[in-house]
Amino acid sequence: MCPGSFDPITNGHLDVIERASNLFDEIVVAVGINQSKNRLFEPDERVEMIQEATAHLGNVKVDVFRGLLVKFCVAHDISAIVKGLRAVSDFDYELQMGQMNRSLASVDTLFMPADPHYSFLSSSLVKEVATYGGDISGLVPEPVLRRLRERLGT
Ligand code: PNS
């Protein structure tokens, strides 16, 4: 499983999903729905953008989850979580989450180093740059670019 908020999916996420899809028979991209976070895109929009961006990958499906990630993993017989790491700062929090998830259920977390081309990339920064009219082509998949332009009128 490749979990995340994906608000929206970036080329950094897509790179990790593509590489994970080469390593595993099947990948579930799981969109976490956390009510407390301020989101630009609704869950079904985020799912649609991921489906369009991963349409070329035959072994990837997209789903949503609410609540604990490990509950979704257990319910769907998923034994491994794949997370991309952009920097050491990501590792601190991801290690803590990976260890917590391992203590809650028999679900291991595998860390994949981000492609250096994308190590500065985040959904939040993409939204900020797009909001102020910056060029984000090359940073997000085409379906995201289109929707961001529609949404922000840029
Ligand atoms: O893209 P993000 O925002 O870094 O994704 C974080 C996400 C959704 C994967 C993470 O917050 C998560 O797993 N949330 C589900 C709630 C949960 O299981 N919390 C305990 C983690 S130890």
Notes on the protein architecture:
This protein has about 150 residues and is α/β, with parallel strands linked by helices. It has one domain (about 1-120): HUPs (Rossmann fold, 3-Layer(aba) Sandwich). It is built from 6 helices and 5 strands; from the N terminus they run βαβαβαβαβαα. The protein has helices at about 10-25, 45-55, 70-75, 90-105, 125-130, 140-150; strands spanning about 1-5, 25-35, 60-65, 80-85, 110-115. Strands 1-2-3 form a 3-stranded parallel β-sheet. α4 links the parallel β4 (about 80-85) and β5. It is globular, with a radius of gyration of 15 Å. It starts with a strand and ends with a helix. It binds 4'-phosphopantetheine (PNS). The site of 4'-phosphopantetheine (PNS) has 9 residues, from β1 and α4.
Topology:
Elements: E1 2-4, H1 11-23, E2 27-33, H2 43-53, E3 60-66, H3 69-75, E4 80-85, H4 88-104, E5 108-113, H5 123-131, H6 142-152
Parallel strand pairs: 1-2, 2-3, 4-5
The structure holds 4'-phosphopantetheine.
